[in-house]
Structure formats: C-alpha cells, structure tokens
C-alpha cells in the first residue's frame, strides 16, 4: 500500500504524519486530532479537493494529495479549551471547592483505543527520550506495582501542607498497605500532577522516610502519553500511564509481572490487562469506613504468591477472586 507523508500546519508549527492512501478522510482527521488535540468536529483542513464533499468515508486517494504536501489546519485544541476551563476550576478550588480530575473515565465496554500500532510506535520514540531516576534499586525477582497517588492512596490538599493535619489526607491504612505489598513487589509511584507536587506529597506525607517500605522511583504527568480513544463512539484525546515506558527502561518487568492500581481506568488504555481500578478516595466521604487498601493488599499478596504470570488473572474481577480464596 502507498503511504503519503503529509505536513500539517497549525498554530505556526509543523506536524509530519504518515497516512495510507486507502485510509479515509475520517482517519486523516483523527490523525490530526492525535497530533494537535483539535477535535474532528472543530477542524478545518484546507484541501484542494474538488467534486464530492469530504465525507468521513472518502478515501485519501480521492483527495488528490501529494507526498509531502502541506495542509493548513484551523481549529481550537482541547488543550486550549481545557486551559480556560482549568482557570475557572482553579478559581473555584481557591474559593474552597475541591478540584477533581475524575470527571471523565472509561470502562472496558464503552472504550476502544484508536490505532494502537501507531501509538506503540510513538511510545517507542518517547521511551528513548525520557530518563528514570532510581531512588531505590529494584530487587531481584520482585514484580512491579505501579500506584497512583491522588484519590488512590490519598486526597491531597495544599492548604494542609505545613500543618498537623497530614494524616487526614491519607487513605485509611495507607502505610500499612505499602508495608504489606513491599514484601512482594517493587513499588513505583505515578502521579498525574507536576513533579513539584509529587515531591511535596511523597516527602510531607512520610512516604520516602518510612523504614518498612521503599519507593523504587516516581513519575509525574510529564511522562504520561497521549492517545486517541473512542468512548461510546466519540473520539477523545487524553493522557495515559503507558507502562511500556517503564518496561523499555527496566527490561526485567513486563505485562506478565506488572500490576497498575489507579482510580481512573482511562490511565490503563495502553495496558488494560495490567490495570486494577480502585474506588476513588475522598476524605469528605466517610473515610473511617474505607477499607479498600486492606482488601487490595490481600489480593496483591495472593497474586504474587499464586501467579507467575499476572495476565492469567482478570483484575476487573479482583473482588470476586479475593472472596473466592478467602472462603477456602
């Protein structure tokens, strides 16, 4: 199949993409979306196509495009829209309202990843550029446990920093959970926030100084990977925690010995078989009744002891698995 190299011109930047001539106009729009975050319905691509209108199913070969042709794109990106919304939400947060990030999520039944092969190629390129700063070396033979921070292990508030209210931010049994799982796993923290806040949370909440467990390394939002997926048939460009970035740097870990726990299933989009979605922790929602970490710890202990290949277990059914083994 012939492949065309197209140069998209948007906001003064050039985006070089490749597309097969057998692909469709819709595919071209999604490709532009994956590069710029301008949603297809907000795009204006300046084509010199004459004749029938550019419907979604029109083949690229029918558009009269040349190899290395430049196409001007107009449209407002989701990132620009989200920046404006964030300003508004931040103002609300500073007024005392909680700023949450779980207003958009997925489940296996309503989501599909677009062009996984292209995403994996881009991921390989990204992996070559990033560096991982090891705090505590991996231990031989230990599988990998990747943990989210906010709403998984804690509910952070910058207003509680430098106060005696640190414990109120922690999910119940958090330190106990980390102590238990550390016996079986090397622990990596991956937060969807900037490094400054990751560092504050880890240090101020005592996660780097506890003598009973150690964090191998921590990652922040800068190494999250952008993909395009369809939720209920609608495209959405969003960030994910692509475990392949870790596996590319630490070859002793793979999908067979890695599990990722997060309150947002969208972060599993590149590696759904490795994800376990927990309930989101909110310190204002009866925290004294929250025993989720104790139950997940029990599941992780069983997983590490009974299974050399984690892909043999469906983590979506972790509670049923735990109940079955606890009843024996």
Task: Put the structure in a nutshell.
It holds the Pfam family NIF. The chain has 328 residues and is α/β, with parallel strands linked by helices.
Description:
Its cofactor is Mg(2+). Its EC number is 3.1.3.16. With 328 residues, this protein is of the alpha/beta class. The protein folds into two domains: 3-78, Roll (Ubiquitin-like (UB roll)); 111-326, HAD superfamily/HAD-like (Rossmann fold, 3-Layer(aba) Sandwich). It is built from nine helices and twelve strands. Strands 8-7-6-11-12 form a five-stranded parallel β-sheet, with helices on one face. Helix 5 (174-182) packs parallel to helix 8 (292-306) and helix 8 (292-306) packs across helix 9. The model is unreliable at 92-100 (pLDDT under 50).
Oligomer: single chain
- Gyration radius, in Å: 22 Å
Given the structure, what is the number of helices? 9
Helix content: 25-40%
Note the main sheet: 5 strands, parallel
End-to-end CA span:
57 Å
Task: Kindly report the name of the CATH homologous superfamily of the largest domain.
Answer: HAD superfamily/HAD-like
Q: Briefly note the CATH topology name of the largest domain.
A: Rossmann fold
Rough outline: elongated
User: Which residue ranges are poorly predicted, with pLDDT under 50 across at least 5 consecutive positions?
Assistant: 92-100
Report the structural category. Answer: alpha/beta
Q: In CATH's first tier, which class of the largest domain applies?
A: Alpha Beta
Question: Number of domains in the coordinates?
Answer: 2
Organism: Aplanochytrium stocchinoi
Catalytic activity: O-phospho-L-threonyl-[protein] + H2O = L-threonyl-[protein] + phosphate; O-phospho-L-seryl-[protein] + H2O = L-seryl-[protein] + phosphate
Cofactor: Mg(2+)
GO biological process, one term: regulation of proteasome assembly
